[in-house]
Amino acid sequence: MDLVQTLSNQYLKPELPPMNVGDTVRVTVRIKEGSRERNQAFEGTIIAKKHGGINETITVRRISYNVGCEKVFPVHSPTIVSIETIRRGKVRRAKLYYLRDRVGKRAKVKERI
Q: Which residue of 1, 10, 40, 68 sits 20 to 30 Å from the alpha carbon of 103, by its own alpha carbon?
């Protein structure tokens, strides 16, 4: 058990910002298209955090052109370049799946001061 833990600890990213459910984040991902690589940002609200350690994932949701789009990002993946916290959200739940039914101003999360 300790061998697995020590192997996975060396792949953890040490420079992650503090992020919680309800925060608005910008996740920059390295995308490979053929022989070229580029960085693409995905900005949205964290609606779920799952697992822990090397398996930790966040689900980020945004609405673009009146269509909701969700992506699940493994936090410690080598394809993720950076994660920036833009706004801190004030929520009282661990999972914000109820935001899937809401559009516009109703889908906003209050900002923590």
A: 40
Task: Give average pLDDT by consecutive 10-residue segment, the chain, 113 residues.
Answer: 88 92 97 96 97 94 93 96 96 96 91 90
68 lies in some domain: yes
Beta carbons of 19 and 83 less than 8 angstroms apart:
yes
Domain that holds residue 32: 2-107
Count of domains observed in the chain: 1
- CATH of residue 70's domain is 2.30.30.790
HSE-CB of 31 using CA atoms within 13 angstroms: 9
One-letter identity of residue 81: V
Q: What region does 77 belong to: left with phi over 0, alpha with psi -120 to 50, or beta?
A: beta
